[in-house]
From TrEMBL:
Cited NCBIfam families: transpos_IS200
Source species, domain of life: Bacteria
Taxonomic source organism: Streptomyces luteolus
Annotated signal sequence range: none
InterPro entries in the cross-refs: Transposase_17, Transposase_17_sf
Name by which UniProt lists this protein: IS200/IS605 family transposase
Gene3D superfamilies linked: Transposase IS200-like
Transposase IS200-like domain sequence ranges: 14-134
Length: 138
């Protein structure tokens, strides 16, 4: 597990970007048992690796999951989210056929919406104060 303050470097930038993501099941159905969550974490780690991201933390309950993802600036968070939700839904459906009863009508495991929040770094008030205190050019 990486430290939240770890700074990564890309070809043309230095960055420390983290997002807290929350995905909720369609109609908030209570779908997941522990075995599903364990497998889902593995699937989501693989998807993150494909995007050159790191799944720093993962946890969930019967009807939702939380992810903390460290991602490079070249990654569009919406594309990462679509892949995480799509791949996990497809693989879980293939590997656990009993979940099909939760895929009512549209054959979707996840709600169409999600939560994404920035995480880590200094509080906004400290960042604002730091910027305000920088020397202004004459």
């Amino acid at each position: 597990m990486s430290d939240m303050t770890q700074i990564r470097t890309g070809r043309h930038c230095t960055f420390a970007l983290h997002a807290h993501l929350v995905f909720v099941t369609k109609y908030r159905h209570k779908v997941f048992a522990d075995r599903h969550l364990v497998r889902m974490e593995e699937i989501m780690r693989d998807v993150c690796a494909d995007f050159e991201c790191e799944l720093v933390e993962f946890n969930g309950e019967k009807n939702h999951v939380h992810l903390l993802v460290n991602f490079p600036p070249k990654v569009a968070l919406s594309k990462l989210v679509n892949s995480l939700k799509g791949v996990s839904s497809r693989r879980l459906r293939q590997e656990y056929p009993e979940l099909v009863r939760h895929y009512w009508r549209a054959q979707r495991l996840w709600s169409g919406s999600y939560f994404a929040g920035s995480a880590g770094g200094a509080p906004l008030s400290i960042v604002r104060q730091y910027i305000e205190q920088q020397n202004r050019p004459l």
